[in-house]
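User: I'm writing a tutorial on reading structure tokens. Could you give me a worked example: one chain, its sequence, then its tokens, then a sentence or two explaining what the tokens reveal?
Assistant: Sure. Here is the example chain.
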Amino acid sequence: MKKAIVVDKDYGSVTPADLEMLQARLGASGVELKLFHCKTEDEIIACAGQADLIMGTGNPPITEHVLKSLPQLKAVLRFGIGVNSIDLEAATKYGKLVLYMPGFCVSELAVHATALALALERNILYYDSHIRQGEWPKARHHVPRLPRNLTLGLYGFGGSAKEMYRIFRQGFQSRVIACDPYVPLEARKDYDVEFVDEDTLLRESDILSLHIPLTEETRHIINWDAFCKMKSNTAIINVSRGALIDQEALADALEQGEIRFAGLDVFEQEPLPADSRLLQQEDTALTCHSAFYGEESKQCQLSLAYELADAVLCRNEVPARFVANQEILKKLTDYKIM
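And here are its predicted structure tokens:
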């Protein structure tokens, strides 16, 4: 019987009942799934010694130390899009397949980013908090602007950014600009988007929404210098990864009026520390890494978790589009690449 483990069952992106259902489905396919919550590399190694597959519902530290210590391990499966906590180079080096779920929640991410932007622009949070304090601040605070008169800037133009483009361009008739050098020139013709350089994106966006992965190159890509290039009434939205933004610089930018709004679903440290200056900012909308969350995305996530585990462990098949370390496909001889 093949063996799989979840190494972070209490992360919160799926419920205990969801994991029990997955456990039962995999069990019927001949895969024994055990559930753990490991906080360190050594705990993962201790729990995964006999495992063929590691599943991570969040961002467990799957480092080179972990990967080289588990000779029986065949694959790692992330219940999500980001793989920044997995050493992809080491995984390829030690022959471990890394699977992830690109696209499973792109619509939810775009809707959530839009909700953050509109809640800030329309003073929703300001009115709500002051009404709860017994006030009635009718038609006060920032004067809202219509979305059709705003420029949406998209940093990255992948799945969730394309969905947000459709909401703003086709729905609100907003101007949309994007910065993404990886989009081929031919593919750009399919979208009514102005592709611009980074400086232009920063200078001209009224709403700047981040849709890029976290890498060493993109860590703190939005820093004090970037805030100084933005309009003073810009809203920055982040549903991607917290460390894309230098949070101390963001707090400074809000306090000093370099930008007006910040809508954040992700943070450099999660949960957000109680002493974070962002909590003191009236013009912030903060949610708890839940932009992916939705009825449809959850069902897709759980279905993919079963299908990918079943394919790799029971059918010796590898669905190539779900492989994060594509270089390993050249090394696989015992699998059928789908």
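What the tokens reveal: The two ends are 24 Å apart (CA to CA). The chain has two domains: 2-104+295-337, 106-286.
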